């Protein structure tokens, strides 16, 4: 009986974690990572609010057009992003997503890769029936 209880508990936990991973905001995070790595300008234009405030871990702050231009010209050369711990709070027309232990691999102009362990906070707001990224705040995690 005890083994059956633990097995049932394990299946419930697995089902719950799978359901969480399928929220619209988890999918938006995957989309964000995909479009900045691919440098997909049209997709960035669609995903980002015209009111975007993008704050990098360095303290540099950019608006939508500045950020997209810098992704496209290679100033921000993302190679990959991997999310470890994602927390979502859906508040109706606004939601925030916090990613802890995100692994970001960037490439500089010479093609040298650097891996950075980050935390970031994204704020999504519903605009014209779709959620769009309106704010990004990143910070490096201590070593």
Description:
The protein is of the alpha+beta class and 143 residues long. It has a single domain (24-140), classed as Nuclear Transport Factor 2, Chain: A. Helices cover 35% and strands 44% of the residues. It has four helices and seven strands. Strands 1, 2, 3, 4, 5, 6 and 7 form a seven-stranded mixed sheet that branches. Strand 1 and strand 2 (61-63) form a beta hairpin. The longest helix has 19 residues, at 2-20. The protein is globular, with a radius of gyration of 17 Å.
Could you give a short description of this structure?
The protein is of the alpha+beta class. The protein is built from 4 helices and 7 strands.
List keywords for this structure.
4 helices; 44% strand; alpha+beta; single chain; 7 strands; Nuclear Transport Factor 2, Chain: A; 143 residues; seven-stranded mixed sheet
Count of the separate structural domains:
1
Order of helices and strands: HHHEEHEEEEE
Distance between the termini: 45 Å
The tally of helices reads 4
The chain-level mean pLDDT equals 83
């Amino acid at each position: 009986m005890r083994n059956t209880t633990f097995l049932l508990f394990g299946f419930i936990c697995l089902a719950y974690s799978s359901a969480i991973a399928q929220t619209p905001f988890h999918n938006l995070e995957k989309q964000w990572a995909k479009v900045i790595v691919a440098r997909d300008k049209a997709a960035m234009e669609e995903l980002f609010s015209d009111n975007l405030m993008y704050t990098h871990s360095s303290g540099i702050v950019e608006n939508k057009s500045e950020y997209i231009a810098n992704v496209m010209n290679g100033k921000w050369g993302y190679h990959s992003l991997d999310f470890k711990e994602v927390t979502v709070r859906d508040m109706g027309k606004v939601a925030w997503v916090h990613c802890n232990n995100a692994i970001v691999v960037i490439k500089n102009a010479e093609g040298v890769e650097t891996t950075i362990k980050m935390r970031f906070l994204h704020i999504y707001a519903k605009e014209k029936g779709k959620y769009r990224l309106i704010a990004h705040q990143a910070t490096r995690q201590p070593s």
